[in-house]
Amino acid sequence: MITPPADLIIKYRVLILAVCVITAVVAWPRASRVQDSLSVEGERLNRSESETASDLIREAFPQPVGDFFAITVSGPLPIDSAPTRELVQTISDAAIELPYITRVVSYLTVQDSALISDDRTMTFVLATVEPHSGVSPTNHVPQFRDRVHTAVNRLVQSDDFEVLVTGRPALDYDVRTVSKNDTRSGERKALPFSAMVLILAFGALVAAVLPLVVGVLAILYALALVQIVSSFYPMSVFVLTIVSMVGLAVGIDYSLLIVTRFREELNRGRGRRDAAKRSINTAGRAVVTSGMTVAVGFAALLVTPITETRSVGIGGLLVVTAAVVLAVTALPATLSFMGRAVDIPRKLARRLAWYHAPTGWERWARWLVYHPWRAIIIGGLAVALITWPLLHIKIGLPRSGWFPSNTESTNGVETLQAMGAGGFLQPVRIIVRVPEGDRVVGSSFLRPLMRLSDSIRADARVVQIRSVVDFQPGMSALAYTMFYGNIESARARAPEFFSAYLSNDNRTTLMDVILSDTTSFTSSMDVVRRIRAIRSQAPGLESAEVLVGGFAAASVDLQNDLLEQFPLVILLVLLTTVVMLGIAFRSILVPIKAVIMNCFSVLGAFGMTVLVFQQGVGAGLFGLDGPTEAVYVVVPVLVFAVVFGLSMDYGVFLLARIKEAYDRSGRNDQATIEGLTATASVITSAAAIMVIVFGVFSFSRVLAAQMMGFGLAIAVVLDATLIRMVLAPAIMHIGGRWNWWPGARVQPATDESRPSGEIRLEP
């Protein structure tokens, strides 16, 4: 294992602490405004069909209905009443005055019944955002909302109406805001509970505070670096949650290991400087090795094709590096000054001494040594039971709960759904471009377009299609041919419609497929797959380019690309971890067993995530109204990459102590007992802190963050109980002296205390 330069760290401890303080002061301003530079909408790093469709829409239409705000209006009076008409007109006038709004559509301008509810008391206004401004529409949300609500509040009867701004930019803005608030709230909630565990673990207030400081500093440094990175690489808003969760967890865990070892060395009679050096040379080595295994998982995310996962990988690498550096430099430097002051108040330590009493853990370790197969069978059955639901996993967008509750945009979506217009927010968009010189509304393409439209409409989940062949329901192909015979006359009848659905050169047309409000996000992805299958078989469109885009199509493309890369992520993590642990422990068997044990933790976490979220068992505890019916594709990828490294922490802590005992005694059984006894309370405390941190985030209002927090918490629980306290030591016993081959040579056993036939390995 890599050993940090203990002598240099203690020699230059004043300089190290000074640099730590200065960098914290410099980092604070950047970290405090990091959310302003993060992106909600992800970017693809390879071309997908949905992206190509989106680009083609922007290229072909001067005023495409792409990003837009939807302003919902609901009240006691119908749309025909004077107060309601005045309100809608006021909203339209306020919106069109903004420079980035290109068009405003309302029932007053187009008389489209799709824009009002059946009882005519609810309506919505569409405000299209300039697509070529170079500024994300999400950044316009605060100003747009302020302009709309200010204009509405000037009206006498405004209190009788509910006006809400929603749409994709508003939803993205609220996701970003909720993520930021939930992150801060999660940190505030996790810190006091973590402090309680640390006080129990250390029996001292001073010792308990130090890991918290390291965790907070690790987050501070990482967020400041994320803010810098975001200036030249797009960083997702999800990085906030990951950095906070992981930074607090590993920062506290690594510090817990260092401080615990420092106090052990003090109790053995070492001076404070020697104890700090010894802590670096022993626990510090384990921290560096553990940090490297965690970093491997995050580094593997850099091969994924989207910025959400890549930015999480970057953020994870930054926060883990910060936590490791602080734990092996600034923390020992501080301890070398404090000495016995770390135990203040000592009365508390005496009262909590029972927590660290090794007697119970030693009895358990000896039972495992005498009954290893029994432990493996019981533990294996438990892991299999927890993992069983994974067989029924369905990857996709969740049925509900995707948007954070109790936000203006989500409430606006609910209003749209109440009036049967929720599908307008996320239509499936089909773009059709014919060869140069042809007209897409010419006689040779009108019939194929109508057949395509009819085939799509046959799906019960489709309630409406807006296109050039659905302009007037009931028109025949001959009537459309005559209608588009004079294209200028046709455009004059509905200029706003044709500017959005037929390009100026008449080569490109757009079909918006509106899905019913009862269609879940998961089902909308199935609709996209069906349309693409129909598209490929549509007669008469062979020479045309037909692309399917929109939110659901982008989700299908994202899922396909991530699942295609997921095996590579798994392979990179497994192989790199095996090689690193093999080098660190000079063994072949130990890293292979450690990786297999980690896989059990990950599979168990996936199984429980499927059970709780997809199948809805206990979903109400997390504020969900039922099963999600699917697991978002990003969650398994992120959970695997993050969990594999984090759960390896405890394996490294345990194995490092066993190896240390083995190098000293040469007796595998005794080393296993000693390693488990010495680390059990530390692992238990560290796991409790991680579960608290991740568990808090599992109650976030962002569903993806909930799934990740829950999966990470369950994985840590499994790893710290069934894996590290049952299966791992039992398997270490069965492996015997061969655990450490080829890092030690084989010699016949001569000690009568060892069982007959056992082999001794001399390091």
List the helices and strands and how they pair.
Blueprint: H1 6-11, H2 13-32, H3 49-60, E1 68-74, H4 82-96, E2 101-105, H5 107-110, E3 122-129, H6 141-153, E4 162-166, H7 168-202, H8 205-229, H9 238-267, H10 272-300, H11 307-338, H12 346-351, H13 359-370, H14 372-387, H15 408-418, E5 428-433, H16 443-457, E6 462-466, H17 477-483, H18 487-493, H19 495-501, E7 508-515, H20 521-536, E8 545-549, H21 551-585, H22 589-614, H23 634-665, H24 668-697, H25 703-735, E9 745-748, E10 759-762
Antiparallel strand pairs: 1-3, 1-4, 2-3, 5-7, 5-8, 6-7, 9-10
Summary, kept brief:
By secondary structure, the chain is α+β, with helices and mostly antiparallel strands. It contains 25 helices and ten strands.
Q: Could you describe the 3D structure shown?
A:
The strands form 3 sheets. A 4-stranded antiparallel sheet has the order 2-3-1-4. A 4-stranded antiparallel sheet has the order 6-7-5-8, with helices on both faces. Helix 22 packs antiparallel against helix 23. The chain has 25 helices and 10 strands. With 763 residues, the protein is α+β, with helices and mostly antiparallel strands.
